[in-house]
Amino acid sequence: MGNMTPNACFVAIDMTRRSDASDGESGSAQTLRRLSSHAAELRERDGRRIARELHDVVGQKLTAVRLELSSLGMAAQPECTHERIDAMVRVLDDALAALRKIASDLRPVMLDDLGLNAAIEWLAREAARNMDIEITVRLGENEPVIDERVATAIYRIVQEALVNVDRHARATDVQITLQARDQGIQLTVQDNGVGFPERAMQKLDGLGLLGARERAVMLGGRLDVGNPPGQGGRMTVWLPLQPPAPKTNPKEVAT
């Protein structure tokens, strides 16, 4: 000890400070993750309420107006009146389509009403039609009873994966598989495109991967991505059927 140089002493102190800083960063990361989880749940809750109001209230009123205009058009005689009414009906049709899309993006009503399997099938059909590609969905015969947060996360991850395929993969075929496994539910999205860039697989940034991983981690799950030889890109997500309840500190989060 008597032979320790000032530099050695300085290094020892510096390493201690780094260790303390590392512990602090770890604690901060956990706090941020809890905050992020809480904020995500609040967004989904608000999205569900707004989507339901758009679908049930605004959508019904627009539909009623459309029906009235159509009946008025059948009763009206002048040709110019028919043309104006037809034009208004087309505008209403566009408004209704936009309304349904906004409501679905906020919160898929089908997810609440018909369950996860039906919601994923609908999402796949819409994506296949819009992207003009083949999308095959393979679901278990019996839909497992899962936590609402897990169902929402799976739906959103499929949504993000299909957006990624559309923007980056240059694929013509997508396979979506959902099955119960290891006391949880496993989602696999496989395409025949160009695969994930190496940088994206290492850091999971960009391409919607970071958001998907955060959704999985917040619920006690995991996400893996890779490029199987000659098969494009593959994303696999596993989530527990019943994740642990979110832990929030009243001093950290104001509800």
Proportion of strand residues: 5-15%
CATH topology group of the largest domain: Heat Shock Protein 90
Our count of helices gives 7
Provide the structure class: alpha+beta
**Total domain count:** 2
Distance between the termini: 54 Å
Arithmetic mean of pLDDT:
76
| Fourth-level CATH superfamily of the largest domain | Histidine kinase-like ATPase, C-terminal domain
* Radius of gyration computed on alpha carbons: 25 Å
CATH classification, class level of the largest domain? Alpha Beta
DSSP E strands, number: 5
Q: Can you give a write-up of this model?
A:
The chain is an alpha+beta fold and 255 residues long. The protein folds into two domains: 7-107; 116-240, Histidine kinase-like ATPase, C-terminal domain (Heat Shock Protein 90, 2-Layer Sandwich). Helices cover 62% and strands 14% of the residues. It is built from seven helices and five strands, in the order ααααβαββααββ. The protein has helices spanning 6-75, 79-106, 109-114, 116-131, 148-169, 198-203, 209-218, and strands at residues 134-139, 173-181, 184-191, 222-226, 234-240. The longest helix is centred in the N-terminal third of the chain and has 70 residues, at 6-75.
Secondary structure layout:
Blueprint: H1 6-75, H2 79-106, H3 109-114, H4 116-131, E1 134-139, H5 148-169, E2 173-181, E3 184-191, H6 198-203, H7 209-218, E4 222-226, E5 234-240
Parallel strand pairs: 1-2
Antiparallel strand pairs: 2-3, 3-5, 4-5
Helix pairs in contact: 1-2, 4-5, 5-7
